[in-house]
Write a structure and sequence with these properties.
mainly beta, eight-stranded antiparallel beta barrel, 1 helix, about 15% helix
Length: about 120
């Protein structure tokens, strides 16, 4: 019984000390790749982001969005030339965790509770 309690205490201590780093500033600008699945098919979006502009290329089409940083780990994307009502809506992006060359994020249309997640890789 004492070993069991000791194991629980040690587990709680170590798990409370674990802190996932977020070095979001490393990913504010640069060239990136986002791999995702659409209808069972692997798709890739490439994009380049400056402090206040993001240029994306997907399926041979290029699109531009303004970038407004809310804080070091969150920003709002707004298409500069929306083609329909959906594209007029801003997207809230939040970096959840970072590693040396990638970050995990969640995103949603501003004001929408439905969030999706993904991982982006920073290209050299």
């Amino acid at each position: 019984m004492k070993n069991f309690i000791f194991a629980i205490v040690i587990t709680v201590l170590f798990s409370s000390c674990y802190h996932q780093e977020r070095n979001c500033k490393d990913f504010k600008t640069g060239k990136f790749k986002f791999e995702h699945e659409i209808n069972g098919k692997k798709e890739v979006t490439y994009f380049e982001r400056t402090e206040n502009l993001q240029i994306e290329t997907f399926n041979g089409k290029t699109d531009t969005a303004s970038v407004r940083w809310v804080n070091d780990c969150e920003y709002i994307l707004q298409k500069t030339h929306p083609k329909n009502m959906l594209e007029q809506k801003a997207i809230h992006m939040k970096i959840l965790t970072t590693s040396q060359d990638s970050y995990a994020f969640e995103f949603s249309i501003v004001g929408d509770a439905n969030k999706q997640k993904g991982t982006v890789t920073k290209l050299k």
